[in-house]
């Protein structure tokens, strides 16, 4: 193992752990506070929809369920991409990275469709405190997924250039941690925002 | 590197023995099944006092499964878990207080 790879895997660091991975976990811990704030704000404002559409009238649960399933399965393909690289299976690593990026893109496509439908039905960003809180929360999550897709595509390009090898599998692991976190946040959003009965007009 | 540090690194190497692809698929199937149950509650008439705790249990179950198996917290150093749980607990306490101040639990 090269010196750089050894340090990135935690050999030679003070804790015996990879500093990059530790930093990602600290970042994810701080992200809990960001999304906690956004979810709480939504919960406080979900009953304040004024003359605009109410959450219970506008949410399309079957459609969002399919989107949630797609994102959940992208976590599986992400972990399979990492497992493939750890075995030195470059081909399958590329296949699973691409599949994860495609599933993420499908989720984002669903979110764009949902937002467009809501706007057409009269729910704009400034329609009511409910709409502002809803679009801010789900929009922030969408931005996180989009950044994840960019990271996955960067990994894929790196792999095609031949620089993403078994020794650098920790890079995929760190991007994977971010991706799974985004999935975990959606598990919360899907239940608390969509499945828990919402106020109707 | 001290002996203790060397032992620590060795133990980390042992902890990095991750599950097989088949195991990951099994976990994903369980998560998909729980998601189907969650969605199923939307189509069944149920009192809120039963529905909301049920949804919360399924949500937490899915969260722990993804964190433990896909994020490898089950196999990695407990220090990673501590950092993540600190953020999670801090968020739960801070926003629990916020929701209480805004009387969310009474007004809903």
For this entry, give a set of tags:
A: 201 residues; mainly alpha; Four Helix Bundle (Hemerythrin (Met), subunit A); 7 helices; elongated; B: 2 domains; 78% helix; flat
Description of the structure:
- The complex is a heterodimer of chains A (201) and B (108).
- With 201 residues, chain A is mainly alpha-helical.
- Chain A has one domain (21-195): Four Helix Bundle (Hemerythrin (Met), subunit A) (Up-down Bundle).
- Chain A is 77% helix and 0% strand.
- Chain A contains seven helices and no strands.
- In chain A, helix 4 packs antiparallel against helix 5, helix 5 (90-120) runs antiparallel to helix 6 and helix 6 (129-160) runs antiparallel to helix 7.
- The longest helix of chain A has 32 residues, at 129-160.
- By secondary structure, chain B is mostly helical.
- Chain B folds into two domains: 20-72; 77-108.
- Helices cover 78% and strands 0% of the residues of chain B.
- Chain B is built from five helices and no strands.
- Chains A and B meet through helix 2, helix 4 and helix 7 of A and helix 1, helix 2, helix 3 and helix 4 of B.
How is the secondary structure organized here?
The complex is a heterodimer of chains A (201) and B (108).
Chain A: H1 3-8, H2 19-45, H3 55-58, H4 61-87, H5 90-120, H6 129-160, H7 169-195
Helix pairs in contact in A: 2-6, 2-7, 4-5, 4-7, 5-6, 6-7
Chain B: H1 3-15, H2 21-40, H3 48-70, H4 78-101, H5 104-107
Helix pairs in contact in B: 2-3
Question: Which structural class do the helices and strands of chain B define?
Answer: mainly alpha
* Alpha-carbon distance between the two ends of chain B: 56 Å
> Structural class of the helices, strands and pairings of chain A?
mainly alpha
The amount of beta strand of chain A, in percent, is under 5%
Query: Given the structure, what is the number of helices of chain A?
Result: 7
Order of helices and strands of chain B: HHHHH
Report the largest inter-chain contact. A-B, 53 and 54 residues
Low-confidence stretches of chain B: 1-15
As for the number of domains of chain A, it is 1
General shape of chain B:
flat
Strand-residue proportion of chain B: under 5%
């Amino acid at each position: 193992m090269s010196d750089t790879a050894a340090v990135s895997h935690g050999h030679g660091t003070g804790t015996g752990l990879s500093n990059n991975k530790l930093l990602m976990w600290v970042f994810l811990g701080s992200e809990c506070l960001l999304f906690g704030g956004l979810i709480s704000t939504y919960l406080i404002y979900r009953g304040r929809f004024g003359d605009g559409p109410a959450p219970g009238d506008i949410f399309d649960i079957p459609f969002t369920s399919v989107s949630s399933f797609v994102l959940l399965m992208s976590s599986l393909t992400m972990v399979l991409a990492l497992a493939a690289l750890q075995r030195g299976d470059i081909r399958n690593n590329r296949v699973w990275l691409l599949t994860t990026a495609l599933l993420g893109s499908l989720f984002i496509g669903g979110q764009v469709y949902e937002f467009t439908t809501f706007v057409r039905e009269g729910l704009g960003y400034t329609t009511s405190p409910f709409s502002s809180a809803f679009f801010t929360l789900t929009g922030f999550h969408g931005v996180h997924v989009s950044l994840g897709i960019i990271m996955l595509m960067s990994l894929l390009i790196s792999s095609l250039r031949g620089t993403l090898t078994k020794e650098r599998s920790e890079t995929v692991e760190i991007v994977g941690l971010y991706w799974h976190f985004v999935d975990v946040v959606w598990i919360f959003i899907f239940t608390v925002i969509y499945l828990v009965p919402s106020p109707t007009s | 590197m001290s002996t203790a540090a060397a032992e620590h690194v060795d133990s980390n190497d042992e902890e990095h023995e991750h599950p097989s692809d088949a195991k990951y698929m099994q976990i994903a199937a369980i998560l998909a099944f729980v998601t189907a149950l969650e969605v199923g509650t939307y189509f069944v008439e149920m009192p809120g006092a039963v529905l909301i705790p049920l949804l919360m249990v399924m949500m937490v179950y899915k969260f722990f499964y993804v964190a433990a198996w896909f994020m490898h917290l089950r196999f990695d150093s407990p220090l990673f878990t501590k950092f993540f749980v600190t953020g999670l607990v801090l968020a739960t306490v801070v926003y629990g207080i916020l929701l209480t101040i805004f009387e969310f639990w009474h007004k809903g």
